[in-house]
Specification:
200 residues; two-stranded antiparallel ribbon; alpha+beta; four-stranded antiparallel β-sheet; single chain; 6 helices
């Protein structure tokens, strides 16, 4: 484990873990909230897209032009989105580390079938929270808003999905909500959680 500027003795260390058994329920609640928050305004602004005639014409267009790719494209977008999600974590956290991106490690927690980004240096709570929330902002919230503004239903759906995909990140941030923003946080290297270092 990394030392904290050779002053580790000045900190009290505590392990904070998220309950993965609750994660699916939490993700479902986030999905519902995202549908209400983004889907309702979209429907109000672009009601014409939800008529039977429009849905049928869109379906015919997609099956005529992209029939062979309809099953592949969602999986491809999902895979790219997962990679981008972890890269955004790493790139954001690396802005606040002494060794830049060399302090960031990527991998997969195979027992959970979950990709991860691990920052090997402790970060201030505010910097850690920023890095934790950035994928939800970049891949979820901003695309959802862009979908509402432009009337692009597919961008809206992607935004809502990747907002839900940040459920674990939201859970970590929730654990840290009462911590001093200048205390330190260190990712757990192999579990869904982190160490909090509070000033002694």
């Amino acid at each position: 484990m990394n030392k904290i500027d050779d002053t580790e003795a000045q900190y009290k260390k505590e392990l904070l873990m998220i309950d993965l058994h609750k994660a699916n329920r939490y993700a479902f609640l986030i999905l519902l909230a995202a549908i209400v928050l983004f889907g309702v305004p979209y429907y109000c602004l672009w009601t014409g897209q939800f008529t039977a005639a429009h849905i049928k014409s869109t379906y015919r267009y997609l099956t005529d032009r992209y029939n062979l790719l309809l099953a592949v494209i969602p999986l491809l977008v999902l895979g790219i989105g997962i990679i981008l999600h972890e890269l955004i974590h790493g790139l954001t956290w690396s802005l606040f580390t002494r060794n830049g991106h060399r302090s960031v490690k990527y991998g997969v927690l195979w027992k959970y079938a979950t990709p991860y980004c691990h920052c090997k240096e402790p970060l201030e709570v505010r910097h850690y929270v920023l890095g934790a929330l950035m994928p939800a902002l970049m891949l979820g919230i901003l695309p959802s808003v862009a979908g509402i503004i432009t009337g692009n239903f597919y961008v809206l759906v992607l935004g809502i999905f990747f907002t839900m995909a940040a459920a674990g990140d939201f859970m970590i941030v929730h654990l840290l909500r009462h911590e001093n923003k200048s205390d330190r946080v260190l990712d757990h290297p192999s579990e869904a959680g982190c160490y909090i270092y509070r000033k002694d």
